[in-house]
Design brief:
The structure holds two protein chains of two kinds. By secondary structure, chain A is mostly beta strands. Chain A is 0% helix and 59% strand. Chain A has no helices and eleven strands. Chain B is mainly beta. Chain B has no helices and eleven strands. In chain B, strands 2, 4, 5, 6, 9, 10 and 11 form a seven-stranded mixed beta sheet that branches. A four-stranded antiparallel beta sheet of chain B has the order 1-3-8-7, with no helix packed on it. The chains are: A mainly beta, B mainly beta. The interface between A and B is medium-sized, with 23 and 22 residues.
């Protein structure tokens, strides 16, 4: 079975500082990887996806993530945090089961941005 | 463009009462549909998914059920709610299983 581990349930940064949210996955086959953001009392919004093309993936709101197969990682970064980035972030991996797939989510990382 | 609607946004129900949450998708046909439950600090738990009308797959045993009476309609139900059914319920759709899932705004369910 595939799994996702998000290191750090809570990350706090200052406005303008680098944002780094960590995600490691396990997969026996090449994975599809996703990052989602969730604002309070809202659904999840797709930030970016990796689908075996370029290993550096650019997403919305200035976020990007790099797929590193040797490290089984897909960390999310943003050079300069903004107050509006405060939210919960979820990493997800697609899981193949026969001809079907489902997303397995990490437990999330709550990002706090301090002024 | 595609949109997904979930309602109601919040719901307070007594223990033992029935439940019906509805989700509809617009702007696409034959989507894959999903119901998730999100408990605080525990990520998302997939409850059901559907690849077509009347086709429902259950991921966890529970007192909830799902139905898909129309191509773009997905309903989550219960005959008798338990306290443990409290949570944030999210509906999602995708064009295919290896494509991103797109989420509705969720229903906050509180059981008293």
């Amino acid at each position: 079975a595939q799994s996702v581990t998000q290191l750090g349930s809570h990350v706090s940064v200052s406005e303008g500082a680098l944002v780094l949210l960590r995600c490691n996955y396990s997969s026996s086959v090449p994975p599809y990887l996703f990052w989602y953001v969730q604002y309070p009392n809202q659904g999840l919004q797709l930030l970016l996806k990796y689908t075996s093309a370029a290993t550096l993936v650019k997403g919305i709101n200035g976020f990007e993530a790099e797929f590193k197969k040797s490290e089984t990682s897909f960390h999310l970064t943003k050079p300069s945090a903004h107050m509006s980035d405060a939210a919960e972030y979820f990493c997800a991996v697609s899981q193949s089961r026969g001809s079907n797939y489902k997303l397995t989510f990490g437990k999330g990382t709550l990002l706090t941005v301090n002024p | 463009s595609q949109t997904i609607h979930q309602w109601p946004a919040t719901l307070v129900q007594p223990v033992g009462s029935p439940l019906s949450l509805e989700c509809t998708v617009e702007g696409t046909s034959n989507p894959n549909l999903y119901w998730y439950r999100q408990a605080a600090g525990r990520g998302l738990q997939l409850l059901f998914y559907s690849v077509g009308i009347g086709q429902i797959s259950s991921e966890v045993p529970q007192n909830l059920s799902a139905s898909r009476p129309q191509d773009r309609q997905f309903i989550l139900s219960s005959k008798k709610l338990l306290l443990s059914d409290s949570g944030f319920y999210l509906c999602a759709w995708s064009a295919a299983f290896n494509q991103p899932q797109h989420f509705g705004d969720g229903t906050r369910l509180s059981i008293l």
